[in-house]
Amino acid sequence: MKGIKKSLAEEYLYLDLSHQREGCIFPLHTSVTLFLLSYCDNKIFKVYLVLTREVSQWTRLCELTIPLAIENFLRLSSEQPSTIPVEILQLEKKLGEPVRVHNDDKLRRQKLKQQKAAGARLPLAQDKSKNKVHGQEPSEGVDSLSSSLEQEVAFSKLRAKEEPATTSREPSHIRKAKASDLPPLEHVFAEGLYFTLADIVLLPCVHHFLVVICKNLSEKLVEFPLLASWYQRVQEVPKVKTAASKCGIQFLDLPDLLTTSDEQHPNPSEVPCMEEQNDPLFIGGPRPTMTKLMEKGIEVIFSPHPCPTWTLDWNSLPAAVSPREGKMSSDRALRKQQQLNNLVYVVTNQARSGDRIVDFCSGGGHVGIVLAHVLPSCQVILIENKELSLVRAKKRSDELGLSNIWFIQANMEYFTGMFNIGVALHACGVATDMVIEHCIKMRASFVTCPCCYGFIQNTSKFNFPKSEQFKETLSYKEHMILCRFADQTAVQLPPQRRLIGKQCMYLVDLDRARAAEERGYSVQVISMEPENCSPKNNMIVGVPI
User: For 362-477, where are the E strands, in sequence order?
Assistant: First the structure.
């Protein structure tokens, strides 16, 4: 690929004119593409680049808005001193916000355990160093240990071999800790804990931004400690330095600008956000919003379970069908079996011979493999974007000798085939809405079990509330209150609080159900049996009319 010949003495990174190498100037999109291709062109190291399931405002900022802002910044800085782009300030602020990921309660409890263990060792360390004038500050020991959890999780995803899952239970005082007492998770990469396409796009852009800052506005560098830390951490990802060198990017050696994590990242449970402090809508939690819905005749009334005592005969099924074959504890495997009982009953009563069933966000194939085994006359397709999960599912399928199952590694929006039933167990946040939308477009039935309600937000494809009935009653912010409290159903919480969380879950899912009904579906919101099979135990079952 040939660049445009220019006689420039310095590097630039513009959308139209940018990176200079051996007399050639590369456009920004070419520079990013070359870096991505160089990073992925590796025969030894397996690349696990996570693609986001939905284009959020944050993803759009990282992959579109910031490159454009940096282009303009570099243009202006070549002529006169330029102000820092507001988008870069937004990025710095975002990197300081707590990370929210699927199953983050478990990770935050592990982090709490680390912090308590480090705190127990501090008195000994202080005794040994109390006579030292320049000894290490006590808080640094806690910070270095607590931050290592996020990095360990993040970099484990980038290794070719998957680490064995731990099945031991946390100590009682860790399990019983309130959610509000758990430490927040900190950013490792741009999207949170995992290395994504946003990091690939941002790296060349941020690099050239920092080059200008270090050269012309060095006093401004201290304003970006988190961005500088991210910049250095991305370089630790295997093969990033090799890929950068192929593209002519020579990384800067930046000083450590981070202060203690307590100064940078106050616990959100201790410091309420400004909108909660100032907005009267937040007073009283979700109750004012729920009362508002009740006044409009919208109440929490679940549809009856079609067969609450039905169960598969797990003891007679081949071992590879059971989730006990996966890497999970026996207690969790039992709960997974109970979840599958609910989904399998509904799907088997809808399926007809020759139907095509799609298991969206299939993970290790717990749902899809059971369906393929009990419905041999149906075709079952597993769609998942994580390679390791599909490898495990394929191995179990091969052990069973299943011939009616297929595996597709992709984001669900890239699947365009026809199907009759769509299934999703614990699709996170708006992924549930994407599954339902996919099914509606195909006029297919759907059986979904939502998860991570707190991740729901307006995107380029979805606006909340979704149904006309809820839109006429609730604002977006009021709907987000329901979503936020719908995530408060963990077993460690007090019973009354879990009950409110369950009611909020129903109302969020009822909005989804009503939106589907407006498009020609008959929809029920059902509670799984037994209810303790999962904190997220709702099923949304839709059939085209």
Answer: 379-384, 405-409, 421-428, 445-451
CB 233 within 8 A of CB 188: yes
Structure tokens at 457: 């937000």
Terminal CA-CA length for the chain: 54
Q: Both tokens of residue 14? A: 């513009």
Percent of the chain residues topping a pLDDT of 70: 75
- Nearest alpha carbon to residue 118 among 152, 148, 147, 141: 141
What does the pLDDT look like over 347-387, one tens digit per residue?
A: 999 999 999 999 999 999 999 999 999 999 999 999 998 88
d(CA 464, CA 477): 9
d(CA 407, CA 390) in angstroms, rounded, equals: 7
Burial class (CB in 10 A: 0-12, 13-18, 19+), 519: middle
Token pair listed for 427: 């699709």
DSSP letters along 45-73, please? SPP--BPPSS--HHHHIIIIIHHHHHHHH
Question: Could you tell me whether strands 405-409 and 24-26 are parallel, antiparallel, or unpaired per DSSP bridges?
Answer: unpaired
**CA–CA separation, 141 vs 262, rounded Å?**
13
| Dihedral pair phi/psi, residue 8, rounded to 5° | -110, 140
